[in-house]
Each structure stands twice: as C-alpha cells, then as structure tokens.
Structure prediction request, 172 residues.
Amino acid sequence: GIRFRDEQDLRAGLAVPWDITGAAMRRRGVSAPPLSPEAAGATLVRLAGDHQLVFFETFLPDLAGHGRWIADDADGAEQAADGDRRSAVEQIHAAMARIDGLLGGVLAAMRPEDTLLVTSDHGNVESLSAPAHTRNPVPLLAVGPGAPLFAQVTSIAEVADVVEQAALASDV
Prediction:
C-alpha cells in the first residue's frame, strides 16, 4: 500500500496540509511551510502526476459550519468567544474562499488528461439552523475527461463505484 503523507513530506513540498495553508499546524507548533491556497492546489496536481488517484480531504467547511474553525488572520474571520452565528457565517465564507483558491490552483495546473472530483460526505454549511449535519444533497463537481462518468451520480453512495470506473477506464 501507499503510506499517508506526514510532516516531513509537507516540509519537502510532497504533501498539502488538511487546512490547505498549514496555518492550523503552525498554531500547534508544527513546522509547516506557509502555502497560499493556489500554491497548495498546484502542489496537489504535481503530486497527482505520480499516481492514478490522489485523495485530499479538508474538513474546513465542517468546522466552520459548526462554528469551530479558528481562521488565521489572512482569512479575516477569527472565531468569536461566544460562538455566535454571525461568526460562523464569517468562518464559512473564509473556509469557502480558501477552498476556492485551492480549486483555482488545481484547475490552473491540471493537465489535459487529469480529472478533478470534488464532493462532500454530508452537508452543514448551508444551514445554521441546527448544529448537526444536514441530510441535504451535497454538491459534486467533476472536471476533465472523466467528468461525463459522474453525470448520472445522484447519491454520495454512488461516487466510489464511479471513481473505480474512471480509474479503470483506459482513456481517463
């Protein structure tokens, strides 16, 4: 099997931190180089060149939706001590802006043969009326030559099978 990337890989430019920029790791004393979201996206594409499938997970929207993400100053959305919902909205905007930058970096660096798939395992940022995850449909974005394979996906339960089909397709 392939091992998960670690702090050494991160410092060598061979990994992208879960929070995209490394700010959360640096706050915890880990020596993580600062990355712009766009540079993190370009790094993911570079790393993908060595593999048939690269999986990247960020739980920024989940933490922001629960009002538990402490954004760094560059994001302009520090968590309020009282956890008010206005602060959660600011956190969500900052988290989504960071992800938007990451996706911009990925799209700018993708090769013609690359396929990008973005989805979530549950909702929560679209409704702050309850602190739990929602059962709302989640977005699915597919870009690249394998994108048509995902056109008929209507449930998160179908994604893994289509990813496998895409990986097995000789022209994807």
About this structure: The chain is about 35% helix and 5% strand. Residues 75-85 have pLDDT under 50 and may be disordered.
